[in-house]
Design brief:
Blueprint (H helix, E strand, L loop, with lengths): L4 H12 L4 E3 L12 E7 L12 E8 L2 H17 L5 E4 L2 E17 L7 E14 L3
């Protein structure tokens, strides 16, 4: 059984960025909640017997391009410098991140609201569920 990779990423980002809203999807009143970080597992192949290898897409929404870009760079640094080895407690169990690989580097992404800026990237993770002995 696997722990939810989305919940591992969301929980870790909530702890790492306590002043920001971190969630799975955007809301209709997004401008009222800025800046916002979203994390979603996207379809991919790669699960093993004891290790899940999900692709996780992360987007940052902000009122200004510079803010979105800088926050995305902070998220990128977190994925490489802090996330490997981290254990995160979720509703589906405890997950430990063993590896992080960038699949799509951070870049500006389209958004329909001209008052918003969006920057995002995609990472492949190796996440193992930690089972209490």
């Amino acid at each position: 059984m696997f722990v939810s990779a989305e919940l591992v990423v969301i929980g870790a980002l909530q702890d790492a960025f306590p002043g920001f809203r971190v969630q799975r999807q955007t809301e209709l009143d997004l401008q009222q909640s800025l800046p916002v970080i979203t994390a979603v597992r996207i379809p991919s192949v790669g699960a093993g017997v004891n290790m899940d290898r999900p692709l996780v897409d992360v987007d940052v929404y902000a009122a200004r391009w510079a803010e979105a870009d800088l926050l995305m760079l902070d998220v990128r640094a977190f994925f490489y410098r802090v996330f490997p080895g981290m254990q995160v407690v979720t509703a589906t169990g405890v997950g430990q991140v063993h590896d992080v690989e960038e699949s799509s580097s951070p870049a500006q992404r389209p958004v329909s609201d001209p008052g918003l800026f969006r920057c995002g990237g995609t990472w492949r993770l190796a996440v193992k569920q930690i089972v209490a002995a």
